[in-house]
Specification:
about 775 residues, alpha+beta, 30 strands, homodimer, globular, 5-stranded mixed sheet
């Protein structure tokens, strides 16, 4: 193909933009079916309690109510869900473990009736002791929240690389810190909803739900309801308004709606309110990190030791993988020979933590990059210099890190240098103004759950008129994946973009795919597409070579035609496709279809945390300039430089959109988003609304300068890297570092609110006696 | 696999029977979409006229009317449809060519408004001369109905095998006859309808229609509307109430609904009334056959000469292929060295003739089997004996006929002998009672349109819990195809039937398939399924062989498990499938999917009519006993024996159902169905209703004795042969022969009504002077 492209790398508008702008795009909220009922949950007002009695009689008598479910209908009659064993979350619970936990469910002819019915259900609770703080939960004698978890520790993951004791002993400097990150929520515009329709005559369940991963959701629902997966059709709606990790797997509403539809033989829709979205879906894992870093005199990092406590919340989900990734990314883009990590996953009486953009990396990056600046301060060298001293340099590549990650392309040096230059690192600044930087590495792609590989399958059909259908099981959650896939298909087969149709994310229609997670899609699904496209091309060229009487290898496909390479003659693809459809060629015949599977064999971590996590890795360095108002503690970002190694840019608009959005979320993480705040004793949620939980708006965000560094990765099919996850991680630390540079205080707890800055300034003034 | 089956050959209820019995099955009539409009056609009251003027102003002013289309909107702005070139049927016409031809169309908010609007459209016609009789149409100077067709002959197909003049000259006997068959209609219970929905934002058209062949319909609609096929999604509804050939390709209502939906941006539904179904869909081609047969003294057939005139109706469709198949089947199951056929396809001012169960074979079989009895009479040997003398015998196989058909399995001898025995051929009978027999051969499968191959593609996914999804582009039109496919998948992979889901006939979902035509599906689509299943099995066994530590070839899949062949140990398929999904195996990974394409290279007929039409051939002999009431001419079937070589029986219930249904249609063809009757001058339709067009009911049909002869064909994947088409062909001739045996009159024009018998008896009495 060479590096001259007709479609790749261009600014091509999202193929669904017209339907979103005109409003014809269908979200779950837009779907309805004849005879559809509305389901609602009754939720626990207690953070921890036993349900002693439920009286549903009044609710059942309300006209329009079709079904009232209690935990007795569910527990023991369905299987629990969750990404990993032991699974312990049901659609309804007899013992509730957070405020908002599901206690009963209702299906009624309309939403108002369902809500009225909820008020008629009388539940008697026996309150139980509440544990909200994971450190407290680990203390022997703390209330045990899940039967299997001694001291509430669901899982413990470890890294044991090198000799940590020796490494720290021999270090010239040891710098320690304790860092606390927040329970950031995804706050996607499109709240969770599903529509479930069971046909008693065929035994088939059709289930529309906002999901990043229809195949896993299918398995999860089928498993919960004891149905064959082949009888469960999971469809991601054509339009999903953001996901950020919060739409993987199945939720209580998925299971309850499916269960009620099967029981009633009528479609049931369940849609969460914004409050329920905050309460009862997932969030980023809060990490409490105690870390120490050992360095030589010249600033070379020799050791990293860390204990992380992950706040899992009430039920088990993806915590072990968040722990694993957090560990795997602990060293970031730096070469560190001795690494020791303990990651404790701990239950608390809070909503479940799950996957969220960055997946463990923003937490660990905040700690590492803060600590690195603290170390630079001690060693007495510049923060940029200490980073450049320790990074994986271009000449190191290919490089295997001490933890086994295989780096085949790395642009971190260029990112750091360009970000420093762009932010004016060396400039003299006004008082209370400072600059900060943070660097990071982020995996693109992911090993499969429980497994050691990363795969996707794409199915292509070339219609008889030369137009193209591409089927992918992956979801476009608003980020533009299908646009990128259409570009790739158009590029590889020389078919006009407007003749490529992407068919996506319907478990009955599309081939299996690991889904839209972990910045994998253009690489893995795109890779599968390119394999299938190559097979289509091979078949096309075989027929065209007969028509044009040249060797297939002398052909090239562009702009709807297959040309002889010297462009002297050509035949329309429509004609070749038609011939394949209608004419036998060499005894072969039939429409041109192909299925491609892209597999990258990664290597699972061993017990010491050694292994290669992902097919490839992206790098970034963000540089921030802030002004701190000492009187109020207010922090204003005056410059924001985002320099990212994105591999090859596939669609410039989309890459920029991802980086802008990621940086916005990173700034929210750093400065604004208080996370889900719980009253310290009762666990009552204090801010489950967009009014009280502050997602940054455009007005809260600075202008951003984007710098794209393109290191073409040899593993990724077009050399692209993931850009979805990586945008978030650096910002919080870069801001904290800039604040330190500006006013000399170090904030280690997210978000960095004016109050925290003010108190730190006060403490500093007290300390210095001024 | 051996010949012991868990599922194949059993009486397994259709997998859709529950949904049909409970009413949950969705026909097109059951579908509706928000904002859906209803479309209706204004139809021509004249058999041939020019539209001089259309005034739509009053119709357009009617509240609720959204659009009124006239031929000016369509002609030159869309492309005509039809199975073959030259295509000449549009959604609307400026020159109408039969009573019922489409002149204008309306879309309105409901059906009543649409119908009211039709009455407000004022059309001024200039009547043109009408030609209804194809022989008359061929006379030079007859009105020319289509520009390209000189003497109204659209096509002429020929067979020139051997030396016909020499053959006839050297024959000891030459017997001649003229035979006229009727314009039988399909009369499926489910009348034609479609629902078309265009999304202006994505440029995609979704089109539900009753079709046997979604991929051809997709191409046809895309071609008519100048859209890429990848933007047209054609879906056959989950339930289709019979097809019989009348649901291949696209109709005027498909094009008009799609066109109006695109113009309006709203869904448009069009459903034909029963009267419209009779008027404006297709029918069996009436054949006028002049045939002569040459025989030696001993009854050996040495020559067959035939001129057939096919009544094409107003527009070109599948006539050339009907002619080709009629020709290819002219010799039936007999060895005839010299064959000469001319098949003229001739336009008339009547509804279009198209594909119908048997596809040219019932017509030619009626002529040949009647003529053969007439010849037996002349030669002076028994009708059974003359057939046995000429058939392809088991020891001939594999046998290539004089016209190039390759017979790899043939059970005609057994069919004839068993049918004769069962009907009590040699018994002495009461006066006015007689027996008759007819034999036939019918292709299973078909070469592709314009091409020389027969193919299907099936896509299989094994879900992580070991349940199975099978995707086929073929339609189940009520005959049970999906049940048979589910049996085959269950059999091949040892998966419980209830865990197999068949997903069918949606051009966006399923892989391309030639569709449900020409008795091909269990062979071709089933063949593709078995190829895909073998690949799934290979992958399964590879993983299971690691788990069980045995060689893959020592494994067998049955009852949800993979066993070591000695049945000593096993592992559940669910476990193996899960491992494939979640665990890397030998560096490979990912869900088990496979796509299989079944291709049978057939050979197109050359100009002399030599070639191999189909992958395999089925045979049948039906024997009939009748009582004729001389006073009324009424014919009562007192015995009906249907002996068919079906290859391997795949599902006994379904095979029997096909043979019962086919025989019922054959008896209707022979005795009852007057075809579409046209007033001799105006072309007005006289019987476009179920009241006046008599389809036999259960009360009209005799008890039938079915005899299944199973000659396992080596080409067909499980050895099965088509049973859909073959049932019809023999009955009309067998009845005619039995009537001759009973009362000595030969009826050569279908249907054999009491009037015709009575007149023949009267003529005979006159002739013999009694």
């Amino acid at each position: 193909m060479g590096d001259v492209f007709d479609f790749i790398g261009k600014r091509i508008p999202s193929i669904d933009s017209m339907s979103k702008v005109t409003g014809s795009a269908k979200y779950i909220a837009d779907l309805s079916l004849p005879g559809m009922l509305y389901g609602k949950f009754l939720r626990s007002p207690h953070a921890h309690a036993r349900v002693v009695k439920i009286d549903t009689s009044r609710a059942e008598m309300l006209p329009g109510v079709k079904l009232v479910l209690t935990p007795d209908d569910i527990i023991g009659k369905t299987n629990p869900v969750g990404a990993a064993r032991p699974r312990n979350q049901y659609a309804l619970h007899r013992e509730v473990r957070y405020v908002g936990d599901e206690v009963a469910a209702v299906a009624a002819v309309d939403e108002a009736t369902a809500e009225e019915a909820l008020e008629l259900i009388q539940v008697t609770y026996e309150e139980l002791p509440v544990v909200l703080d994971p450190e407290a939960a680990m203390v022997p004698g703390a209330p045990q929240l899940q039967e299997e978890a001694r001291n509430n520790v669901r899982d413990l993951k470890r890294v044991r690389i090198g000799d940590i004791e020796k490494g720290l002993k021999e270090a010239d400097y040891i710098v320690k810190g304790r860092f606390q990150t927040s329970k950031q929520v995804h706050a996607a515009l499109d709240t969770h909803a599903c529509l479930s329709s069971y046909d008693p005559a065929t035994g088939k369940l059709t289930h529309w739900t906002r999901t990043q991963y229809v195949f896993y959701t299918r398995l999860s629902i089928a498993g919960a309801l004891n149905m064959p997966a082949s009888k469960v059709r999971v469809i991601a709606p054509p339009a999903i308004g953001g996901a950020f990790g919060n739409k993987s797997g199945s939720y209580a509403h998925d299971i309850a709606a499916a269960f009620m539809s099967r029981k009633l033989g009528q479609p049931v829709k369940m849609a969460l309110s914004r409050e329920e979205e905050f309460q009862a879906t997932k969030s980023r894992h809060p990490f409490l990190i105690d870390a120490e870093i050992g360095l030589n005199k010249d600033g070379t990092i020799v050791a990293w030791r860390e204990k992380a406590i992950l706040d899992v919340g009430a039920y088990g989900d993806l915590n072990s993988w968040v722990a694993l990734l957090g560990q795997a990314m602990a060293a970031g883009p730096y070469k560190i020979p001795n690494i020791w990590v303990d990651s404790y996953c701990v239950y608390t009486d809070k909503p479940v933590s799950g996957a969220m953009r960055g997946f463990g990396n923003p937490q660990i990056t905040f700690a590492r990059e803060s600590l690195l600046d603290m170390a630079a301060d001690q060693v007495g060298i510049d923060p940029v210099e200490i980073r450049l001293k320790n990074i994986i340099e271009p000449e190191d590549v290919p490089y295997t890190t001490s933890t086994g990650l295989i780096i085949r392309s790395c642009g971190i040096e260029e990112c750091i240098k360009k970000a420093a230059q762009a932010v004016g690192w060396a400039e003299k600044r006004k008082p209370n103004t400072g600059v900060g930087m943070a660097g990071m590495m982020q995996q693109s792609g992911f090993k499969t759950l429980d497994a050691d590989a990363e795969y996707a399958t794409v199915n292509i059909e070339l219609a008889a008129d030369g137009s193209l259908l591409v089927r992918t099981g992956n979801s476009d959650v608003g980020q533009g994946l299908y646009t990128v896939l259409a570009q790739m298909a158009a590029e590889d087969l020389g078919i006009p973009l407007e003749e490529v149709t992407i068919i996506g994310a319907d478990s009955e229609v599309t081939p299996p795919d690991l889904g839209c997670v972990s910045s994998r899609s253009p690489m893995t699904t795109g890779g599968a597409l390119r394999i299938a496209a190559a097979e289509v091309k091979r078949k096309l060229f075989r027929i065209a070579s007969n028509m044009l009487e040249v060797d297939p290898q002398d052909l090239v496909a562009r702009q709807g035609k297959i040309h002889v390479k010297d462009m002297s003659r050509s035949v329309p693809i429509a004609e070749v496709a038609g011939a394949a459809y209608f004419t036998s060629v060499d005894g072969d015949a039939g429409p041109i279809t192909a299925q491609g599977t892209w597999v990258s064999s990664t290597q699972p971590q061993n017990e010491d945390g050694y292994g290669n996590y992902a097919p490839c890795y992206a790098f970034a360095a963000d540089a921030i300039e802030v002004e701190v108002e000492p009187a109020t503690g207010e922090v204003k970002i005056t410059k924001c430089v985002v320099a990212h190694d994105v591999g090859r840019t596939l669609n410039l608009d989309i890459v920029e959109g991802q980086l802008h959005g990621g940086a916005g979320m990173g700034i929210g993480y750093g400065l604004l988003e208080e996370g889900l705040v719980h009253a310290s004793k009762t666990g009552q949620l204090l801010n489950p609304s967009i009014m009280s939980y502050k997602v940054p708006t455009a007005l809260d965000l600075p202008d951003m300068q984007l710098i794209l560094v393109e290191t073409i990765d040899p593993v990724s099919p077009l050399g692209s890297k993931g850009v979805g996850d990586m945008g978030v991680a650096c910002l919080a630390a870069a801001i904290a570092n800039a604040i330190y540079d500006a006013v000399g205080v170090r904030i280690t707890e997210l978000p960095i609110t004016p109050t925290k800055v003010l108190r730190a300034l006060e403490a500093k003034r007290e300390q210095s006696g001024t």
